[in-house]
Amino acid sequence: MMKNKTSSPNYRMSAIATGILFLITHVTAIGAVFLYDPVLKNPHYIIEIHSDAQVILGALFDVILALAVIGTSVALFPIVKHWNEGIALGYVGLRTLEAVIIAVGVVPLLAIVTLHQHQPMTDGMDKLALITRGEALLSFHNWTFILGPGLVCGTNTVLMAYLMYTSRLVPRFIPILGLVGGPVIFSFSTIKMFGIQMPLWTEIVVIPIFAWELSLAIYLITRGFKHPLTVSDSGKQSNNELLVAV
Questions:
Q1: Using CA atoms in the order 139, 145, 150, 151, what is the torsion angle rounded to 10 degrees?
Q2: So what's the pLDDT on residue 114?
């Protein structure tokens, strides 16, 4: 039987690091959305005269977000691998994919900044062409938002929530939020892929996944990992639950 090590100082530090990284993802993700507001909502942004500092700062936020997203998976892996290493590895891979897509989504916005900085040298016809290019670049960014923070995030959320639920490393109400939020955000993003228009209020579907990550972060920072069942006992319990279900 494997010895329970979740109370060791290293595990406590891993819990704190994981919680802080999750909080960083929230701060940077929300911050980037507000900072991108001028370019995302103004189709003529690329030909108007104004500073690009706000958009560049938003891009920096997204880069930090991508690094923190990877960091959460790396910090959690040494702990959760004891319950299911395959799923733990899948989580690392999917979080890395999510981070890459986020980083790729920064490039078209920075390209808009570059085109905007050179637009004073263009005439009227060229400005119309600039607007068209800007709209295409914005569409590129919007697709990465659907794929990364949408589909991929929804999938990796289910994986980690499942591991947290079965391992009992945190109170079970926390992973339940993830088990609900992951499929919901995945479904919502799938609907958006097909261009189906939905009312603005439907954006509340992000609440469960937001609550999952925020509650997990706060719990890990303040309490750390619980003293869960050992791997052997956890496996026995899962088998017993399966037999009961059958």
A1: 70
A2: 93
Asked if the structure places residue 4 within a domain, the reply is no
Q: Is residue 116 part of a domain?
A: yes
Q: Whole-angstrom distance between the N-terminal and C-terminal Cα of the chain?
A: 27
How many Cβ atoms from other residues are within 10 Å of residue 164's Cβ? 26
In this prediction, residue 125 carries a pLDDT of 55
Tokens of 132: 């068209």
Three-state secondary-structure class, residue 43: coil
CB atoms within 10 A of CB 10: 11
What type of residue sits at position 50? H
- Reading phi first (left if > 0) and then psi (alpha if -120 to 50, else beta), residue 133 is in alpha
Residue ranges for the chain with pLDDT beneath 70: 1-9, 120-125, 227-246
**pLDDT (0 to 100) of residue 227:** 66
The answer to whether residue 182 is domain-embedded is yes
Map residue 56 onto helix, strand or coil. Answer: helix
The span from the CA of 216 to the CA of 235, in Å, is: 23
pTM higher than 0.90 for the full model? no
Return the pLDDT at 77. Answer: 96
Domain of residue 121, residue span? 9-245
Total residue count of the chain as it appears in this document: 246
Q: Measured over all CA atoms, what is the biggest interatomic distance in the chain, rounded to whole angstroms?
A: 75
Domain count, the chain: 1
pLDDT confidence of residue 237: 44
The candidate with the shortest Cα–Cα distance to 210, out of 174, 169, 245, 171, is 174
Neighbours of 37 (CB within 10 A): 13
